[in-house]
Amino acid sequence: MFVVKHRKIFYTISGVFFVASLISLAVWGLNLGVDFKGGTLLEFSYPSGRPSLESVNRALEPLKIGSLSVRPAGENSYILRSNPLDEATHQAVLESLVIDGKVVEEVQFSSIGPVLGRESAFKSLWAIFFVLVAIILFITYAFRKVSAPVSSWKYGSMAIIGLIHDIIIPIGVFSVLGNFKGTEIDALFVTAVLVVLGYSIHDKIVVFDRVRENLKLDYGSKGSDFETIVGNSIKQTLVRSINTSVSTLLALFALYFLGPTATQPFSLVLIIGIIAGTYSSIFIASPLLVTVEKWQRNKLVSRK
Q1: Contact assessment for residue 4 and residue 230, using Cβ atoms and an 8 Å cutoff
Q2: Are residues 22 and 50 in the same domain?
Q3: Which among 143-152, 155-164, 257-266 has the top mean pLDDT?
Q4: Is 173 exposed, middle or buried (0-12, 13-18, 19+ CB in 10 A)?
Q5: Is 74:261 a contact under the CB 8 Å cutoff?
């Protein structure tokens, strides 16, 4: 099949995006939100219509609050993020936000200390790590009866390579957005990454399972080599994978463009992750099985 035959081209395309994401992370890092670095989040609204963002920033300027960021939310609200605020400063902020006689209402106020923020960051990383370990163990067990020509644990390893690809790319995009747009990484971002992992592994297992079934039917004495079997398996699941992803993406695009501002980063992570996950399931994880099988065969030949 075309995908397997020209797999090096698809490896190169993924490699470019993957390396670009790593470079972005190395240069700019991630703009961590209140959930991870500690600070204050204050959402406030103006029932009679909000003033301009410039007016709000001017009103808050005399308070000299460090690391202050104010962004629109919905039709009449703003979200303020800053260093931790004590109660006196909190009340002073609310008083300053009464602009041109417009009544201001506090929607939510939360403050997280830096120790708790670091703890959240470490727990998030551990959550992602344990999910990856659980996935490779599950695939190894589920494919335990598939030992030729590629061992079951290698299916899990190829899936993990694909999953790392699927999460590094959206993280790299958010590194760029954080540097140029001030987009922050919060607990909702981690939730979206975990959702992407679940969605992507489901897509990969569908293709791997078809490979397993076709191996039972066609491999070895019946004539088909491993490369042909993987190519046919991708071909048989291609339309299903694309249709499933497109239908999901339509809902996510609607949420991104029509939903509230607060959910836009969440839906954007899912959009990028699902596109990357669908690509890696078809063009990376499954063709990697063929590459591994060829390496094994060449290694055996070289030993003889």
Answers
A1: yes
A2: no
A3: 155-164
A4: buried
A5: yes
Which of helix, strand or coil describes residue 110?
A: strand
Q: Between residues 178 and 35, which one has the greater pLDDT?
A: 178
CA distance 128 to 168: 12
What does the pLDDT read at residue 223? 55
For residue 149, cis peptide bond before it (omega within 30 degrees of 0): yes
The pLDDT tens digits for 148-188 are 688 888 888 899 999 999 999 999 999 999 988 888 888 78
In the prediction, which pLDDT does 260 show? 76
Q: Which domain holds residue 106?
A: 39-112
What is the CB neighbour count within 10 angstroms for residue 65?
Answer: 18
- pLDDT at position 19: 97
**HEC profile for 148-166?**
CCCCHHHHHHHHHHHHHHH
Assess whether 106 and 120 both reside in one domain.
Answer: no
Both 204 and 275 in one domain: the answer is yes
In this structure, the chain runs to a length of 304
Q: Which residues contact 268 (CB under 8 A, 6 or more apart)?
A: 170, 173, 256
For residues 133 and 104, state if they share a domain: no
Triad 94, 96, 102: Cα angle to 5°: 85
- Please tell me the distance from the alpha carbon of residue 237 to that of residue 135, in angstroms, as a whole number: 21
CA 27 – CA 230 distance, rounded (Å): 38
Among the listed residues 181, 139, 167, the one whose alpha carbon sits nearest the alpha carbon of residue 274: 167
pLDDT per position as a tens digit, 81-120: 888 888 899 999 999 999 988 889 999 998 776 655 677 7
pTM recorded for the entire structure: 0.81
